[in-house]
Amino acid sequence: MSESTVIILGSSRSDGNTSALVHDYATIINATVVDLNDYEISPFDYNADYNDDFISLMAGLLKYDRIILATPMYWYSASAQMKTFIDRWSDLLKTEKAKGRQLRGKQVVVLATGSDKIPPNCFEQMFQLTFRYLGMDYRGMLYCQCESQYLVEHHHEAIAKFVIQMDRN
Ligand SMILES: Cc1cc2nc3c(=O)[nH]c(=O)nc-3n(C[C@H](O)[C@H](O)[C@H](O)COP(=O)(O)O)c2cc1C
Questions:
Q1: Which CATH number goes with the domain that contains 56?
Q2: For residue 162, which of 1, 9, 17, 11 has the smallest C-alpha distance?
Q3: Does 24 score more than 70 pLDDT?
Q4: Domain extent for 132
């Protein structure tokens, strides 16, 4: 793959199942990993009264051709860290419009882990609808069931297939 890719990890633990999936995946496709736990990201504020890392972080992320969002499924939804990050994309439609325009056409992928065999449709739909609204080029989701911990041998084949499929989409 020739595109540059960044994987954004949003989990309550930086060394858990989603992190293990992210690092496996990053090694295969040679991607950069960014952990939201290393940044201060405030919840969306209607008055845009922020003193945090979001805008500078986003400026760096927009330099990549492809953005991968990685989250555990917490209560059938994205993690709070990931949701807070996505909520802040609203700033890109209001106060940071030049950056918002850079999201249009940007390739985007979702990586997720959860203990259920398959996630409910609503889990992926939140991402799909958001990406559609923003005009992003959604390439699909890889969901890895982790009954307790992430075991690389359980997921290697699925990852390899997904990498090929994502490039074809
Ligand atoms: C707060 C919380 C909520 C969870 N909700 C779900 C859920 O709705 N469905 C599911 O399949 N697994 C659920 N799980 C299990 C996690 O998705 C699973 O263990 C995941 O691999 C954890 O990833 P992490 O180590 O990055 O946190 C939940 C775990 C936590 C801590």
A1: 3.40.50.360
A2: 1
A3: yes
A4: 11-168
Pairing of strands 32-35, 5-9: parallel
pLDDT digits (tens, 9 = 90+) for 120-145: 999 999 999 999 999 999 999 999 99
Ligand 1 atom nearest to CA at 19:
26
Asked if residue 124 is part of any domain, the answer here is yes
Which of 33-42, 70-79, 132-141, 146-155 shows the lowest per-residue confidence on average (mean pLDDT)?
146-155
Task: Quote the tokens at residue 7.
Answer: 């994987």
The chain-wide mean pLDDT, for the chain, equals: 94
Return the residue whose CA atom lies nearest to atom 30 of ligand 1. 74
Q: Is the CB of 140 under 6 A from ligand 1?
A: no
Q: Whose CA is nearest to atom 17 of ligand 1?
A: 114
Burial of 150: CB neighbours in 10 Å, binned 0-12, 13-18, 19+? buried
Residue 1: inside a domain, yes or no?
no
Number of domains in the chain: 1
- In a domain? residue 2: no
Tell whether ligand 1 has an atom less than 6 A from the beta carbon of residue 73: yes
* pLDDT of amino acid 95: 87
